[in-house]
Amino acid sequence: MNPNPGSIQDFTRSKQLNPTVFWRLAEDIPKPLNTGLIVTSIALPLLLWWLVTTFGNIDPKFLPSPGKVLEAFGHLWSTRELLKDTVASLWRVGVGFLLAASLSIPIGVLMGSFASIRALLEPLFGLMRYMPAPAFIPLLILYLGIAEEPKITLIFIGVFFFNSLMVMDTVKFVSKDLIEATYMLGGTRQQALFQVIFPHVLPGIIDACRINLAAAWQLVIVSELIAATEGLGRRISVAGRFLRTDEIFVGLIVIGAIGLAFDLLFQYFLRVSCKWALQKR
Amino acid sequence: MYLEVNRLNKQFGTKNGNLVVLKDINMTIEQGEFICAVGASGSGKSTLLRQIAGLDRPTSGEVRIDGVPITGPGPDRGMVFQHYTLYPWMSVQENAEFGLKLQNVPHKVRREQASYYLSIVGLSEFANSLPSELSGGMKQRVAIARALALEPKVLLMDEPFGALDVHTKESMHEFMLDLWRRTNITVFMITHDVEEAVFLANRIYALGARPGTVRKVITIDLPDRSQTVKRNSIFHDYRDELMELLRRHGQEAIAAAA
Predict the structure, then answer these.
(1) Torsion angle defined by CA atoms of residues B15, B21, B23 and B28, in that order, rounded to the nearest 10 degrees
(2) Domain B1-43+58-76+193-258 coded CATH 3.40.1000
(3) Which of A81, A251, B182, B225 sits in a 20 to 30 Å window from B154, CA-based?
(4) Nearest CA to CA, how far is B104 from chain A (Å)?
(5) What global pTM score does this model have?
(6) Under an 8 A CB cutoff, do A186 and B102 touch?
(7) A95: Cβ contacts below 8 Å, ≥ 6 apart
(8) What is residue A244's three-state secondary structure?
(9) Average pLDDT over residues A133-153
(10) Which pLDDT belongs to residue A6?
């Protein structure tokens, strides 16, 4: 023992870690609190918004009240314009994303599995991934016109490279032991790729798609802000030109809600198809 | 001779020159034997096992099974890894069947075969469980069933019980002996646990470290193989002999490195 007993204990805290509920680190909080906080997260801003527009002296052109936005929503919905715009945007993101995903997933898996393919493609993909997709818009309009093609291509560019790299990263972390075990069971490399690597990385792929669909959804809106005849982005652009801020708000809220719905859909899909991955806790 | 290792050498090229991991290893294993290779860390045990498994190639020398030289991994050598390596998205039954599925064995046949070996390892009730729901000992038993389902010529085991607690380990030892007697499988296991090797093996190859070489081959002749034999002085003699061997060569290795 130290010849100077007690001297270190002067430094060490005699206090114990205080118990807490709200500030638990990397731990769950009680369900009622969790639900309460989630509800507050939506309700509080709504309440503030309503309060500010009702009791504050704000020009309705600047900040419309929730009531006005609801009115505008009703109006746009009843004239079927909102539906038309939503369908148009959804169609574009659907086609563009599916195209990009169907190519980037297999390519990403190949890049992650084979060092040879990775060396061949990663440098190029890494470069392309950092080129902001919206910067391609003038080129795309020049090459493809102003119809659907440039918008879908834009989404493709924005999703394909990033998704390939994300999928590649998931695959790189498959344990070598698992693959060797497959060989010891008499598996070929092809079997290891399709029957071991692929199911193992499926949760990672779903998650990468979830993230990239969010990016694709934003790109659709951006592309419509620039050139479109219908679509949610177009709706916001037109509303902006006529200073119809209530319609802008409708557009934004619908866009946000759809994006959130995509996210929740993917989370649900992951939970249902890859139960084993969630049990790792 | 069933499994032979002939004049096997393995070197790795490192920044500091050639590292000799295995030097002039010679082994013969007859069909039906239970052989352990014991050595401290650095003795190249895992490297040796990987050569026999075909997951790695020797720098010189060869491994033959049933007279055929080994050039790569295959189902004739079943392998049980240290860290289970069960497929987490497959159930126990699907894991056990997987080797058979890879060999395109018809569905009904492989179901029966896997079920049979799962019953041998005592896990039939857990056929539909996921690996994450099993304990370490149970996972290892599934891995064994999975390897045995292919009826390999030899079962290779890489410190299979190293990650288990003492009680589970003891049950697994009894389980392994029972399994071996019932199936007559040839087993080659590497371990650093001397008592485990003395308890289980017919013969033990004691490996020295840096470089890994066969220092001695000891034939184990025990009156019986129950837990009580561990109190027998014969058991202690074998154990002490091995411990002394390993300690001496460990010290030599440390001295040589200094």
Answers:
(1) -150
(2) no
(3) B225
(4) 10
(5) 0.81
(6) yes
(7) A152, A155
(8) coil
(9) 88
(10) 64
Q: Quote the minimal CA–CA distance from B253 to chain A in Å.
A: 29
Q: Report chain B residues whose CB lies below 8 A from the CB of A186.
A: 74-75, 99, 102-103, 150
Decide if pLDDT at B191 tops 80: yes
Q: How many CB atoms lie within 10 A of CB B96?
A: 30
Question: Has residue A58 been placed in a domain?
Answer: no
Q: At CA A178, angle to CA A172 and CA A180, rounded to 5?
A: 100
Closest C-alpha to A117, from A171, A183, A56: A171
Residue of chain A nearest B155, judged by CA positions: A184
| Type of residue at B195 | E
Looking at CA atoms only, how far is residue A279 from chain B in angstroms?
Answer: 7
Domain count within chain A: 1
Instruction: Indicate whether A19 belongs to any domain.
Output: no
Q: Please tell me whether residue A276 adopts helix, strand or coil conformation.
A: helix
Rounded Cα gap, residues B258 and B252, in angstroms:
10
User: pLDDT digit string (tens) for B201-238?
Assistant: 999 999 987 788 888 899 998 888 888 888 889 999 99
Q: Is residue A268 part of a domain?
A: yes
Q: How far is CA A27 from the centre of its chain?
A: 25
Residue where the block lists tokens 């032979």: B4
On whether residue A233 sits in a domain, the answer given is yes
Tokens of B85: 């390596």
Nearest to A219 by CA among A229, A207, A231, A208: A231
Q: Which residue of A has its CA nearest to B91?
A: A276
| Cα gap A153→A207, rounded to integer Å | 22
**pLDDT tens per residue, range A213-234:** 999 999 988 888 877 888 898 8
Burial per residue of A126-150, b for 16 or more beta-carbon CB atoms within 10 angstroms, e otherwise: eeebeeebbebbeebbeeeeeeeeb
- Residue spans of alpha helices (H) in A22-175: 31-55, 66-78, 81-113, 115-129, 137-144, 148-172
Yes or no, beta carbons of B75 and A184 under 8 Å apart: yes
Which two three-digit tokens encode residue B38? 């014991």
Q: Is A199 on the interface with B (CB under 8 A)?
A: yes
Please tell me whether residue B13 adopts helix, strand or coil conformation: strand
How does A19-29 read in b/e, with b if 16+ C-beta sit within 10 Å? eeeeeeeeeee
Q: Any idea what the CATH number is for the domain that residue A263 is in?
A: 1.10.3720.10
Helix, strand and coil content of chain B, in percent to the nearest 5, comes to 40, 25, 30
**Eight-class DSSP state of B246:** H
Tell me the shortest Cα–Cα distance from A276 to chain B, in angstroms.
5
Judge whether A180 is closer than 8 Å to chain B, CB to CB: yes
Domain coverage including residue A263: 66-278
Domain ranges of chain B: 1-43+58-76+193-258
